[in-house]
Amino acid sequence: MHILLVASAFNSLTQRVHAELRDRGHTLDVHLASSDDALRDALDVCGPELVIAPMLKRAIPEDVWRKHTCLIVHPGPVGDRGPSSLDWAINAGVDRWGVTVLQANGEMDAGDVWASVGFPVPRVGKSDLYRNEVSDAASAAVLLAVDRFASGVHTPQPQAQLRNRAAAGTRPAYPQSLRRIRWQRDSTETVLRKLRAADSSPGVMDELLGGEWHLHGGHPEDELKGRPGELLATRAGAICRATADGAVWIPELRPRRRPGEPRPFKLPAVQALAGRLPALPELSVRPELSGLSESTFVPAADRDRRTWSDIRYREEGEVGFLSFSFPGGAMSTSHCRRLLDAYVAACSRPTTVLVLGGTRDFFSNGIHLNVIDAADDPGAESWANINAMNDLVEAILTTTDRLVISALGGNAAAGGAMLALAADEVWCRAGVVLNPHYRLMGLYGSEYWTYTLPRRVGAEAADRLTQEALPVSASAGWRLGLVDRLVECCPQDFSGEVTRSAVRLAKSSGMQERIAAKKQARERDESVRPLSLYREAELSSMLRTFSDPGAPYHALRRAFVRKQLPAETPSHLIRAGATGR
């Protein structure tokens, strides 16, 4: 069929639905909803057989839903209604929730049900849950609803006929008054639940060091304690703050918006508090392990400890696992340099296989646009950041004494997708979405993509992927050659599945011969065209862009970090079709 996706933004869920429907041969247009009249115009031009709204914050006008079948994806079980479904569910501590695909009518979230799929609710942040368990359930529900619609014989059921004890009926937007942390009496678990329910939007409003901030993200700390509300330490850009019975790490802050000011954006907490933060100890995870160069090297006995770090290392037999998790998947200059230090240290260990990533949620989205935009000289910081990314990728590409695997439990885009391709193998959870392109940010791209992408998919496909700039499902990535192994599992099981597969691989026969062949291939490629030439060519284009204040990149970056929606739907999303299948 030809389907129109109507969305408030081309976010992760809209991209997942887009990619899954393309995989099944449907042709697609996307309309970013800005006004009712613009939607009517889009429908007249596109002439869709079906309208699907994966993420829509405004009501579809009556004349539209009466003329077209419009399916709304609601992140709640049958009978749940309102704009803050996940916020309420996480705050209530539910173990299971659901996604419902319902037909638009005159009342928000009240239409007849085409499909509903349940999912478990692990103790993770709302945005992580949304990109993973919610995305899996929504994808399954949308595909089921589309098949039922295409059959021409299915009749959707009124919600009143589908009882669901989990649903609580219509609830309003979750207010900041209920999110507010009461540091003097709230336990660590209570604070974490409030932070998780507000991640990544809207954050928890709080007062700190004479300012008002939205707190974003939260991780437990089981060793540090202090007076409730007191700042105790810093680590990797995050701040540690005491609760009534322990402490939490808060990675990011966003200042409260003042009337007439531009929309503020999230930054690492230490950077956001620059000039206000008192002298605090900067703590590593395990200082006694600093002889291995990074605080990320955690022995097996300490793996389940609750102290937090954004980079960790562990070993299972002959396999090293270097995991990292940065907010939003963005990697600043500091992130890249610390990860490179950890990578070099990991390569000093006597392993035959090294796994990068392997956790749930984002793998990487490339350079940190928020940190760049906040810099005194965004062009100079862009240049420093892209070079730090290139240094990391180069280290992976030139590792010839072991097999390196990129394990993607979550999405990857731009330089983050190319970071994954630097490894010998790319393993993806089946629900992952890849965006292997840079064009939408006005960049030529770097991270040695002109070497790694064509060698995997061929020059023609590489050109198409980078120019179309459309999301690619993990399954489509596997067919194209971007992905070597699909891991069919739920998000919570990904780490375990990767561990078992990597250990089996390390024990397999012929491993040393494979490593030797890898070394020979790298030497052969280097003799044909050195990696330095790829880097020089890519970075020369990037430097021109970064150095030109009038380059589109700077305006696009500012719009991205401030979440400014485009005035109209970008042309690459209109009549995208089923290419690249």
Shape: globular
Largest sheet: 6 strands, mixed
Specify the CATH class of the largest domain: Alpha Beta
Task: Give the strand content.
Answer: 15-25%
Brief summary of the model shown:
With 581 residues, the protein is α/β, with parallel strands linked by helices. The protein has 19 helices and 23 strands. It has three domains: 2-160, Formyl transferase, N-terminal domain (Rossmann fold), CATH 3.40.50; 176-272, Roll (Methionyl-tRNA Fmet Formyltransferase, Chain A, domain 2); 289-492 and 510-561, 2-enoyl-CoA Hydratase, Chain A, domain 1 (Alpha-Beta Complex).
Summarize the helices and strands and which ones pair or pack:
Blueprint: E1 2-7, H1 12-23, E2 27-32, H2 36-46, E3 50-53, H3 62-67, E4 70-74, H4 85-92, E5 96-103, E6 113-120, H5 126-151, H6 176-179, H7 188-197, E7 204-208, E8 211-216, E9 219-221, E10 231-235, E11 238-242, E12 247-250, E13 252-255, E14 267-268, H8 269-272, E15 311-316, E16 319-324, H9 333-346, E17 353-360, H10 369-374, H11 378-397, E18 403-409, E19 412-413, H12 414-421, E20 425-429, E21 433-435, H13 449-457, H14 459-468, E22 472-473, H15 474-480, E23 485-487, H16 494-507, H17 511-528, H18 531-547, H19 552-561
Parallel strand pairs: 1-2, 1-3, 3-4, 16-17, 17-18, 18-20, 19-21, 20-23
Antiparallel strand pairs: 4-5, 5-6, 7-8, 8-13, 9-12, 10-11, 11-12, 13-14, 15-16, 21-22
Helix pairs in contact: 1-5, 4-7, 9-11, 11-18, 13-14
